[in-house]
Amino acid sequence: MKPEKLWNLLQEMTLEEKIHQMLQLPNACYQQKNNLTGALEDGTLTREMIEQAGSILSVYGAKEVRRIQEEYLKHQPHGIPLLFMLDVINGYQTVYPIPLAQGAMFDPALSKELAQMAAKEAAVSGVQVTFSPMVDLVRDARWGRVMESTGEDPYLNGLYAAAMVEGYQGDSLSDPYSVAACVKHFAGYGAPDAGRDYNTVELSDRTFEEYYLPAYRAGVDAGAAMVMTSFNTVNGIPASGNRKLMRDVLRGEMGFDGVLISDWAAIAEMIPHGYCADRKEAAQRALDAGVDIDMTTGIYSEQLADLVRAGVVQESLIDEAVLRILTLKNELGLFEDPYKSLNEEAERQIHLCPEHRALARKAAEESFVLLKNDGVLPLSKETSVAYIGPYVNNREMLGSWSFIASTDTVQTFEEAAKAWYGEGAAVRYCQGAPVLETGTPISGLGSQTLPQVTEADCDRWLREAVEAAKTADTVVLLLGEHRFQSGEAASRADITLPDVQMRLFEAVCAANDNVAAVIFSGRPLDLRRVSQKAKAVLEVWMPGTEAASAILRTITGQCCPQGKLPMSFPYAVGQVPVHYNEFRTGRPLTPEVEADRFRSRYLDIPNEPLYPFGYGLSYTSFSYQPVTIDREEAQIAALKAGDALHVSVTVTNTGKVTGTETVQLYLCDVAASVVRPVKELKGFQKVTLAPGESQTVTFSVGFKELSFTMADGERGVEPGTFIAYAGGDSRTPNAVSFVCR
Ligand code: GLC
Question: For ligand 1, what atom is nearest to the CA of residue 131?
Answer without folding.
Answer: 10
